[in-house]
Amino acid sequence: MTMWNDLGEFIVNQCVEQTPINKQIKIEKNQNKISNSSCKIVEIAIGKFFQVSDYLSNFDSIELISTDINPGREDVIFDDITSPNMDIYENAKIIYSIRPPQELQLFIEDIIKNVGAKLIVKPLFNEDLTFNCKMNLKNYKKASFYQKEFS
């Protein structure tokens, strides 16, 4: 399993944790399904890196939306996060971004604050975060990333 699959697995697990108990969801082992639930996840600024989104797309009950200012595939939605289309992010439980440029990080933070979703960010190895909020460093198997909850 790669670091990217580990990050995808962590995101799936966050969907399970954020679903109300009355929906009783579970991940079915080795079947890539989350039972009885729908979890909206949005990736911001996907660029040309699809490993995590491809992993997440294997789960039937995840509504996955990938955005970029220059979509590289038909399944990626155009969005300029400096002037975002907030309809895209509405009701998202998790918003994540892999290697977001520093100049876009404050715009991502604004979106998260408006939506109230959990934020997961995987920066470049040697890059500092420029978010105004405190992000918590997380390690999950082979993946290291930052997370913040806004609610």
Commentary on this structure:
It comes from Candidatus Methanobinarius endosymbioticus. This is UPF0146 protein ALNOE001_19140. Belongs to the UPF0146 family. This protein has a single domain, classed as 3-Layer(aba) Sandwich (Rossmann fold), CATH 3.40.50. It is 24% helix and 27% strand. The chain is an alpha/beta fold. The N and C termini lie far apart (32 Å).
Please summarize what this structure is.
The chain is of the alpha/beta class. The protein is built from three helices and nine strands, in the order αβββαβββαβββ.
Say which CATH homologous superfamily is assigned: Vaccinia Virus protein VP39
CATH topology: Rossmann fold
Going across the biggest sheet, name each strand in turn.
5-4-3-6-7-9-8
Q: How many strands, which pairing sense, and closed or not: the largest β-sheet?
A: 7 strands, mixed
Give the beta-strand count: 9
Furnish the topology, listing elements before pairings.
Elements: H1 3-18, E1 27-28, E2 33-34, E3 39-43, H2 51-56, E4 62-68, E5 76-78, E6 94-98, H3 102-115, E7 118-122, E8 136-140, E9 143-149
Parallel strand pairs: 3-4, 3-6, 4-5, 6-7
Antiparallel strand pairs: 1-2, 7-9, 8-9
List keywords for this structure.
Rossmann fold; 3 helices; seven-stranded mixed beta sheet; SAM-dependent_MTases_sf; alpha/beta; globular; 9 strands; UPF0146; about 150 residues
